[in-house]
Protein: N-dimethylarginine dimethylaminohydrolase
Organism: Microbacterium croceum
Amino acid sequence: MSTPETAVASAPTRTAHRRRYLMCRPEHFTVSYTINPWMEPTKPTDTAKAVAQWQKLHDLYLELGHEVELIEPLAGYPDMVYTANGGFLIEGRAYVPKFRFVERAGEAPAFADWFRAAGYDTVVPEEVNEGEGDFLLVGDVILAGTGFRSTGDSHREVGEVFGREVVSLNLIDPRFYHLDTAIAVLDPVQGTDNGGPERANIAYLPGAFDDASRAILEERFPDAILVSDEDGSVFGLNSASDGYNVVISPRAKGFEAQLRERGYNPIMVDLSELLLGGGGIKCCTLELRGAE
Ligand code: ARG
């Protein structure tokens, strides 16, 4: 009898890539206003617990061999921990956010100053945009979300700033108000032709998009992992991948299995306290590309 080789041969070998991230310790974390459906100011928050959970994510990144930079948390800006909204950076150029809500507006200059000091060519935008919350680099293409925060005009602007193709996607479910709550980039490889073993792939929550956007995603990413509503609603997609290790919420059980089947290594980190502000792993992680 022959051995069932075909059954085990399907999961490809994955390679971890070193990342450089910007994080912000949630020293001032609380929920004092509502700008997304997750935020309920009447629910108590525990800042010490938020810091402890965040610290585990921070330390894990270091264990995985990534570099982590920190930005000083500002008093009065409880959402600053979600650094993904602090900008969008490619090859040494930083596109600064312009927050949709006044509650977060004061974060933008602080991020801009950090990028300048770190040597980034820093571009202050005209249009409302919330950084890597709504812009995801997949291979050489920028996937851009709109519907709740970043505007369609910011998609044009980000395309001009980086000289790259931008694919606009419409978010329709208020729980998934940023693109990074509905799409996870699994192979964040830069500067490839998207071909070969490093082909950039994504996971997404189909129900977060309108029909037209879903059709675009199906066409562009035929091999994408489609995540269940159950895993999506616990912010399973709000994750950080280095191409092999994918840091996800421990509640996203189905997604964990899907990742394993594809040869990724899911690692669970619980950010339950930060979910009270409507954010998860990816929200607390901004990728710093270039300008080392
Ligand atoms: N409370 C924050 C807000 O509503 C959460 C941001 C989450 N960030 C993200 N990248 N999805 O703006």
